[in-house]
Amino acid sequence: QAYAQGEYQTVRQLIQQRQQEEPDWKPPADLVNRLHIAETRARLLQAAEAGEYEQVIDLASQAPSMLTCAEINILWQVGEAFARTDRLSRAMDDYTYIMKNCDNPQERLATLQKALEFMSFEDMKTLLSYERPNEAGTPEFQEIRDSLLRDRFAEAGDDATIMIAPEDLARMEELANASDDPDDAQLLAWYFLVRDSENAAEEWFRKARDKGDSATISQGLALILIGQGRPDEAEAIMYPWRESSDEAMDTYLNAVVNMLGEIPRQDYSEEVLKRMADVVTATQSGTAAQQFGWYSYDFKQPLAALQWFEAALSYEPWYEPAAYGVTLSLNDMDYRPGVYLMQRI
Fold first, then answer.
1. DSSP structure class, residue 239
2. What is the residue-averaged pLDDT of the chain?
3. Is the full-model pTM beyond 0.70?
């Protein structure tokens, strides 16, 4: 009764008491074994909760009979302990055992969800190979497969060396086309962009924007448009998102610099020029201010050009192109003392 109620210390005391009363009496071997397992289980779970992973592994080795599907929580704790102590191959053995031998659908799903935190993409694909059809005859872990695939594409969007299998690419495209969420389309867009497939990237960025725009979606599309010599479109796309991050602002200013630097010069509206000028002044971008200077200079506005070149120099005092622009503007305005001063500097 004490054992059933989890009062293991009481069980030990009762055994000791009876042995004192009956020296020849020995407790049943089954009770001793069960008591050892129960105490080890309790200590193991306490160690896991405390993050004492080496102790978890040590205690599991003392009671290997616990490592069965009937003790799924113990198997999970041991797998995590191996993973958190950099023994991923042993963690893989643990998760593989569960996938091969345990039948409860919820526990199998939970096992993969736990493994996702630690195991590599290839290891997860191996675990998924033990998938079984569910009652409807469909794969039991399709949601996990899709989540894993999204994670892989997120990595591939930052690393062009990551290889994606054709069937995985086809599945990602299927998900992106079927979903109203722009994230799947964006994952594909960045995947193609870092691999210099700009046409495909532009297509997916535009699909993503149709589903729901964001700073990163607009930024990706803007980078493509700048590369295609369409910086005015990029500026219009990025203007609403310019302050969302440093990267967004850099992309916006990149569009501005390319707009102002186009040859032949484009005659932009006062509204567009003013909003660009406000941002350049607020960010104190020397490069963009200098481009504003040359833009004004070529439109025969020497005073405006001079002001922009001087602004660029105030942001970056040793920026030689801006200093050259100041000198030319002063010369065009026939202000010789200023020209001589700039020449001496």
1. G
2. 92
3. yes
